[in-house]
Amino acid sequence: MPGNLYLPCLSAGLHLSGADGATSFPDLKGHSFYRTGAVAISTAQSRFAGEGSAYFPGGVDDLIKCHQHADFGDSGASMAISFSMFPTRLPPSGQEIRLIMVGANDSYGTFFVGLTSSGGVYFGIAAGGTNATGNWSNAFVLNQWNDVLFTMFDGRAMISVNRVLVAWQDGQYVPSAGIPKRVQIGGDNSGDSSVDHRFQGYLADLEIQLRHGRQPPAMPPTVPFADTLGIGIADARHGPIAALRVARPDIRILPSALSTLALDVEHGGRGRVAGTTKNVGAPDYPVSRRVRLLRKRDGLLARECWSDAGGNYLFDKVRHDREYVVMAHDHTGLYNAVVADTVTPELIT
Q1: CB atoms within 10 A of CB 24
Q2: DSSP 3-state assignment of 61?
């Protein structure tokens, strides 16, 4: 992947993955999300192979929260929330779950995506009763992964489940209020038992996007959003289309790899430097990052590339008689660069 050129458009991006039993939930945007109760990463269910997901046991305290921040404030003309869920139990009859909630109760600046006891999904504003889109019973299925996308644009609110548009409503406008809002995941604390049931199951790849409009089509997800985006705008005629996009190869910031016909007089040779980029965990897990190959004696940039979704990178046909420094940069800003010093290329015969 070329990295996410539109990362600034996200308000929050949580993979909700990692090592089994982990209790930290890093956000690509750097907000501090923390758990209450027994929420933890579990590898019992993974939306994408081997990554695990956040397990919610369903207890009254089992939530993930983030304190209020200006990034969760007035959402302007559009908004979107997307996530993958593996519910293991529906709420009891007559009760609902406000699964992803941004804001506080009794405020027209609040918005949430909720689940019903009939397997429906809907959007609501938690003030003066629930001001919601229509919802469709049996929109999602228990004990399997369901991809949910809620979007609002130009007065139309829409919800898609597993790439199918299941509900929409015109004349629905983005909640506004010029105050920072907090985020709560897994349930609400309104004091009204009919909407305060807790989610039980697994959650992965949550993205919250405010204040940004739509762009051209996106493909269905096949890997974790991994610093690229799956959030989109659903349309009754055309299906979901992307709110954000990854740049086409011809307009990427970084140059593409050298052609096999190109001659690199300065750095070309019969050497090869290969490796993987990983985030710290238990165990570490692969991530796509920008990797630079620097000539050790003077720091001159010899090559530059992005590792793939499996964290693999390769610098081929470089000088085999020089030492290099390999530097991997975290474009999300969560970690410092990782440096491997005095790297000698493998000689390719």
Answers
A1: 13
A2: coil
